[in-house]
Amino acid sequence: MCKDYIIPKLLKKYELEGIKFSDKVIEKIITNYTKEAGARDLERVIDKIFRRILVDIEKKVEVKLNITEKTINEMESKDEKEKRHLEFFKNLQALAKK
Question: Mean of the pLDDT values across residues 25-52?
């Protein structure tokens, strides 16, 4: 379902071509990143990956067409770093208000 419906739908939505997900990566996404059974949550997670790819294209960062476990781990690492930065700045703002 993911390879036959969700990925082609999102490729069309974002006007992207040539991005491929291995079965192993799809399995990892389902196991580690979806909170509930069903296609809606899976589509949400894959949509996030496509949006991240679009951001990389906009920033002129090299985009990998084959999404691997390493790619997913790198994206997760960037997300964690961004969360820590946001939390740091929120804490700074809270201290500044005191």
Answer: 84
